[in-house]
Amino acid sequence: xxxxxxxxxxxxxxxxxxxxxxxxxxxxxxxxxxxxxxxxxxxxxxxxxxxxxxxxxxxxxxxxxxxxxxxxxxxxxxxxxxxxxxxxxxxxxxxxxxxxxxxxxxxxxxxxxxxxxxxxxxxxxxxxxxxxxxxxxxxxxxxxxxxxxxxxxxxxxxxxxxxxxxxxxxxxxxxxxxxxxxxxxxxxxxxxxxxxxxxxxxxxxxxxxxxxxxxxxxxxxxxxxxxxxxxxxxxxxxxxxxxxxxxx
Amino acid sequence: xxxxxxxxxxxxxxxxxxxxxxxxxxxxxxxxxxxxxxxxxxxxxxxxxxxxxxxxxxxxxxxxxxxxxxxxxxxxxxxxxxxxxxxxxxxxxxxxxxxxxxxxxxxxxxxxxxxxxxxxxxxxxxxxxxxxxxxxxxxxxxxxxxxxxxxxxxxxxxxxxxxxxxxxxxxxxxxxxxxxxxxxxxxxxxxxxxxxxxxxxxxxxxxxxxxxxxxxxxxxxxxxxxxxxxxxxxxxxxxxxxxxxxxx
Amino acid sequence: xxxxxxxxxxxxxxxxxxxxxxxxxxxxxxxxxxxxxxxxxxxxxxxxxxxxxxxxxxxxxxxxxxxxxxxxxxxxxxxxxxxxxxxxxxxxxxxxxxxxxxxxxxxxxxxxxxxxxxxxxxxxxxxxxxxxxxxxxxxxxxxxxxxxxxxxxxxxxxxxxxxxxxxxxxxxxxxxxxxxxxxxxxxxxxxxxxxxxxxxxxxxxxxxxxxxxxxxxxxxxxxxxxxxxxxxxxxxxxxxxxxxxxxx
Amino acid sequence: xxxxxxxxxxxxxxxxxxxxxxxxxxxxxxxxxxxxxxxxxxxxxxxxxxxxxxxxxxxxxxxxxxxxxxxxxxxxxxxxxxxxxxxxxxxxxxxxxxxxxxxxxxxxxxxxxxxxxxxxxxxxxxxxxxxxxxxxxxxxxxxxxxxxxxxxxxxxxxxxxxxxxxxxxxxxxxxxxxxxxxxxxxxxxxxxxxxxxxxxxxxxxxxxxxxxxxxxxxxxxxxxxxxxxxxxxxxxxxxxxxxxxxxx
Lengths: 248, 248, 248, 248
What we know:
Mean pLDDT of chain A: 96
Helix content of chain A: 25-40%
Oligomer: homotetramer
Distance between the termini of chain A: 24 Å
Structural class of chain A: alpha/beta
Radius of gyration of chain A: 16 Å
């Protein structure tokens, strides 16, 4: 613990990591375009959803096995590590060839059977906080990973559910400060999901850095209005450039 | 929809069902004792956890495959249907011989891969509301089951997470009234998890019936203080007798 | 404590009181019409706002001193006691001639200077729970009244603020059961504000009675759609008749 | 709007103000000691409670009129403006000689009769967000001040009430970014009440600055463990020195 390596980048230990990419891998072309832009900008770790968990079953569920088929070649071309969400313990094998760091999403923080399965791997895991998870429960969830021998854990604060409706979630930066002061885990922040609108992403990312977070997870899309998911909160390329310049 | 049958008992359609049993199946002796007591009392459906989801990985995780081995024989002796929680899509096959109705717990309401798997079965599913699930999200989760062709769905309100700490959760009976007025789903209430203490179970169960719920799900233990989980909220036999007498 | 008398009606001690009336006193004619209807129905205590607390300063703020001028004569004609909200310590003197029971609204539960002033009176006080008041804070607020020598206190649960948006507030009936089991205070329930829509009022009122509440506080209007406040949740006369018949 | 002047210090408009002082004025000696320390440090605006709103009526309620008697002389000696909370519309006259900026506390954000009274004054008002106030309600509350002609309004985010218990409240910095982007009001942050423990005050204050707040409100005490209120969250002099150095 203390630091976790994704590809050749160290998370924790005093640096500030910027992980960025689209909410979902939507096509070869879309993913290549945003990834090459991010690489040129200096981003060292990509994110992109292959299996998506959507509240509405009629919403886009991710390209799934289709993307897994062509991602190895595209990734080799890009040359950056990829963070992607896992939503089922049976996906470990499928995702293994294309994913450098598993992400456990908000909806699965309490999915202990999935955590046990990831505990058996030796790849890093970004564990997002549940919609209404107590800090105590979040930290206990890490023990399901640790029990299996996987201590490559990065916690990710992404906003909690409150009565407020002007923002999508309420970003709890005190939780970041608390966990940094009491544990050894690297903690990153996802300001995109917290805010729910792209204009709040930069100020929240700056606040995340100021409070002591070890990095941020940012949604970027070449044309946010055309994104198949999370269109309102994705930064466009210009927004991402501004954020990268301010934070790195 | 409208009504769902578990064993020979119909849930919905104007009757009030009392489903009861221990939080967890702890041993043959414990399960037999509480089940025979409940059968004699007139309870027609049993509950009992085989796979348990616990916040702390060091807490009792259920007897799991061990219980599945001996449950068929015990169940035949008792002669009542069993509701039990499923926590992983890979458990469907294992649980099939011993479970008459799957329960999807609070922690798994958003586990859509699990819901898709249960959508393929034709057994009834009790879908508990997530800790902080909007009614809208809860209803959308049913569509993952319906999409697979399984319309044997019973919703279960079990309290939501709020700022209040004197009760374990805040039982949202208006959600029950709302769903009954807008949908065809049977809705039951779990007052045990909502209350978190046994003395509040009876008044909340009565309120559930009055608000229009189709039944309740009650935790019972021969000696609550010895229960391996949820000791504070389980009714003892005397408490269960009183509840059954008042509500049936 | 244990029971509190409003006019000649005892609240607490095993009976179930139905307090009803318009959200606001809007005119002599409106108040007389709804009051005479309620009296004929058998309702024994009226409610009606004279000073209104509205989130938007441009919303109707109540008739205020204008209503106080003509209420004594109208009240004599009607012959029923009146519950009305007090929103400022300086209103005690003004309201004294027309009010038989003060109501402290949700927005003022923490207004301790107001509570101290009401502690000096000897009239009953209905103390509503704050939007997000802990049960502990609610009970401590009563001590501001008790310290002044006024023990004529009725607590009123009216729903708490949560993430749910399909209902206006989340009615916390477990709080009612908890307080009834631990204290001597009569507790009533306001299902109108909790629900936010008139069709949920009856099922919630029935649940309130079943959980052990000592009464309900119901908003009624001759023509709800014309009400100057809370139009969506007021019962019309037919709805009120149905509720009265079921609950008394 | 846009900027508000307290004494000779401008809040808003690109500067970052540090307002500091004890939770409560406890004695001449205590207040003088902490004030002179803060003045020497470079702090330009003091805070200190004269009338305290406490959940428990047996807790210290502030020195009240006793402090008002001697504060003018002490203040002249110190030479800094004072922010202090007003808890009753009848206190305006009493506080006028000693207060340079009124603070409306969390418990009184919905106390519209108090806001109307402050709308008639021409002194600046710091309006804290209610425990569970929607941003919409908070902004509407300012209209009660504006309607009276007082536009000297500073909003103060101090944490909202959520399910989390490891922190006293959940600081909502997205609300700060939101309000700064949509309105002209200066917004400050109270990290002391949000955190509830002194070790989280500095990281949250840094995050507040980074997110775009116009200042912070900090509780300081010569000996926090001896404070009559909020002992856990007050900074000692060394902590305050560190914070001032980092943020100014």
